[in-house]
Automatic annotation (TrEMBL):
Residues 1-25 are annotated as: Disordered. Gene3D superfamilies: 2.60.40.790. One of its GO terms (cellular component) is cytoplasm. Residues 31-118 form the CS domain. Required for nuclear movement. May interact between microtubules and nuclei and/or may be involved in the generation of force used to move nuclei during interphase. The lineage of its organism: Eukaryota, Fungi, Dikarya, Basidiomycota, Agaricomycotina. It is found in: Cytoplasm. Residues 9-25 have a biased composition (Basic and acidic residues). Keywords: Cytoplasm. One of its GO terms (molecular function) is unfolded protein binding. This is Nuclear movement protein nudC.
């Protein structure tokens, strides 16, 4: 069972490690006992539901609503059914059938991690989620430029060299000095 952050922070490193290991083992066991498996990214949740070999799409009953998900075989008890823990974008959510039913849910709030898929299922500790590294190529042009600049500046600082902003200031000052050789900058403090 998850403890409040303030209690967790008071634990020693060894106590935290032991607690994390126990919590992780419990989570793995609880998730493995579900009749489906799931993964998530910040903006989406993918649910994999095992179905009998040879099942056809028309034999499935799949209901995807803003706060509800049902997956099962027609005329039988659903494999999973219940209230979603958070709202989804119904129009952007889909399902497909390959050897198993694959349900793709687009999160309405794409900046939160889900603790579970259905509210009645066991929860995971979202504080321990380690998102997959995104690639620079996944970013839009402006964001990519900012990240590349930050990476360059960080590398320059570590090497004791000037950052891109400092280099720009030095270049501007150099041009100004060349345009005005009559001025003495020897005692100038540049900030």
């Amino acid at each position: 069972m998850a403890i409040p952050d303030e209690e967790y922070d008071k634990l020693s490193k060894e106590e935290r490690d032991a607690r994390d290991k126990g919590d992780r083992a419990r989570e793995i066991a609880e998730q493995a006992a579900l009749p489906y498996s799931w993964t998530q990214e910040l903006g989406e949740v993918d649910v994999t539901v095992p179905v009998p070999k040879g099942t056809r799409g028309k034999q499935l009953n799949v209901v995807i609503q803003k706060k509800k998900l049902v997956v099962g075989l027609k005329g039988e008890e659903p494999i999973l059914s219940g209230e979603l823990c958070k709202e989804i974008k119904v129009e952007d959510s889909t399902w497909t059938l390959h050897d198993q039913a694959l349900v793709h849910l687009e999160k309405l709030n794409n900046q939160t991690w889900w603790e579970n898929v259905l509210t009645h299922d066991p929860k995971i500790d979202t504080r321990k989620i380690e998102p997959a590294n995104s690639k620079l190529s996944d970013l839009d042009g402006e964001t990519r430029g900012m990240v590349e600049k930050m990476m360059f500046d960080n590398q320059q600082k570590q090497l004791g060299k000037p950052t891109s902003d400092e280099m720009k200031k030095m270049e501007t000052l150099k041009k100004f000095q060349e345009a005005h050789p009559e001025l003495d900058f020897s005692n100038a403090k540049i900030s």
